[in-house]
Amino acid sequence: MPPVARIRRDDPMEEQHVHETEADVVVLGAGPAGEVAAGRLAEGGLDVVLVEDRLVGGECSYWGCMPSKALLRPVELLAETQRVPGVRELVHGTLDPQVVLDRRDEVIHELDDSAQLPWLQERDIRLVRGRGVLTAERTVEVSDADAERPKERIVARRAVVIAVGTSPAFPPVEGLRDAAGWTNREATTADEVPATLTVMGGGPIGAELAVAWASLGARVTLLEQGPRLLAKEEPYAGEEVAQGLRAMGIDVRTGVKVVSATRSGDRPVVVLEGGEHVEADELLVAAGRAPNTAGLGLDAVGVAPDEHGWLGTDEHLRVGGREWLYAVGDVNGRALLTHQGKRQARVASAHVLGDASSALGPHEPDGAQSPRVTFTEPQVAAVGLTLEDALAAGIDAVAVDVPSDGNAGASFVGKDAGGTTRFVVDRTADVLVGATFVGAAVAEHLHAATIAVTARVPLALIDQATPVFPTRTEIWLRLIERRPR
């Protein structure tokens, strides 16, 4: 995030020149959550100002979900063709990096957000470019990044919605900030394939981008301090993903600690505990996210983030007991997932509008009910609790494990695609409390599991919902066949 604009107060004449306006609602941040909030509020008849200091569409559209999936889709298709006789014989060679990168650039509109603006204009949402800072109750001042004073002061008659998202986090490793050339932003928009790449972090971002750049020809080393990749998922998920990455030629190392980093000429070098040096053409740090709350002016309205910078919210996404202040999306730390942020925006907007008839109701804690997908090869799609977390919560839980390719439909995405599916069942309540699918193109399995977990659908009702033959959804039959009694 750009540095906070300096707001001078020593010159009373300068203060008089600040352009002051009003609106019903000011939304800070035009990423997915901010856009949804602004759109819902405007469609509800309110006068909305949307403040953004970078691109309308935010991190997900330009430096996250969209470009990374554009980079990953070709390798997913290529892997499937190699599993299907009749197609395998027609597809030869490797991916053309330039073609893949060109397509990525189309997806992110060459980092140009002009295509997003008609959507705002159709709803009479006024866009103000710049950095928004709270200066008093319901008051936001907006400055250009290098401005000496604010260019506009906006007073919100009804509410301010904070949707400023997160930035890449750097762990406290000596020299790391100076040595690292890439975060997710550079890794999703780079124009050339590095010959060698070190990825620090084995979570979803690190694992996905390791796959993407390895598929384009980079020799990738992936370093994870913990004992496995994808630490928040079922243990077998990280293990199967590691196997898939190694099959691509990625050097996956778990249980390794980076103690320092430096540059040897233009090449970053990381030093591991024990003294080993790992050198590459680029170093990608994918070690978590940090909320963009610093410099927002929260102290001016008597609100403090938690010790890590996240904004705590209530069930209506309000901050600090303030009736007029909301936080949606990644900045509140509930679930760093675009789809959850968009739902939070819908809930908060309904509350601002006073829509008592809204079917959304209050927003329950995210966490376990948040569906999530890691688009590696194999993919990991999960919702609800892992077996370990369910047992820790005191649930009478048992796992039903089945092969992800153990049905007729799976043969059509390629024989021996592999993978494991785990259903976590609460035996006492006879409901599903978690599901994890690992395998080829399993992301589309997830919504049925999300409905089952969120709605606590009894297994007896799931039994009545017969999956179609021959589709991969017959995997649900394995759950019913092995239903614990």
Short description:
It is built from 15 helices and 21 strands.
Tags for this entry?
FAD/NAD(P)-binding domain; 485 residues; 3 domains; Enolase-like, domain 1
Write the layout of secondary structure elements.
Blueprint: H1 12-16, E1 19-28, H2 32-43, E2 48-52, H3 58-63, H4 65-83, H5 97-107, H6 117-122, E3 126-129, E4 131-136, E5 139-143, E6 152-162, E7 166-168, H7 176-179, H8 184-187, E8 196-200, H9 204-215, E9 219-224, H10 235-247, E10 251-254, E11 258-264, E12 267-272, E13 277-279, E14 282-285, E15 289-291, E16 325-327, H11 338-352, E17 372-374, E18 379-384, H12 387-392, E19 397-403, E20 420-426, E21 431-439, H13 446-455, H14 459-464, H15 475-481
Parallel strand pairs: 1-2, 1-6, 2-3, 6-16, 8-9, 8-14, 9-10
Antiparallel strand pairs: 4-5, 5-6, 7-15, 11-12, 12-13, 17-18, 18-21, 19-20, 20-21
Describe this structure in words.
The protein is α/β, with parallel strands linked by helices and 485 residues long. It has three domains: 12-57 and 113-167 and 291-352, FAD/NAD(P)-binding domain (3-Layer(bba) Sandwich); 176-287, FAD/NAD(P)-binding domain (3-Layer(bba) Sandwich), CATH 3.50.50; 378-481, FAD/NAD-linked reductase, C-terminal dimerisation domain (Enolase-like, domain 1, 2-Layer Sandwich). It has helices at residues 12-16, 32-43, 58-63, 65-83, 97-107, 117-122, 176-179, 184-187, 204-215, 235-247, 338-352, 387-392, 446-455, 459-464, 475-481, and strands spanning 19-28, 48-52, 126-129, 131-136, 139-143, 152-162, 166-168, 196-200, 219-224, 251-254, 258-264, 267-272, 277-279, 282-285, 289-291, 325-327, 372-374, 379-384, 397-403, 420-426, 431-439. Strand 12 (267-272) and strand 13 (277-279) form a beta hairpin.
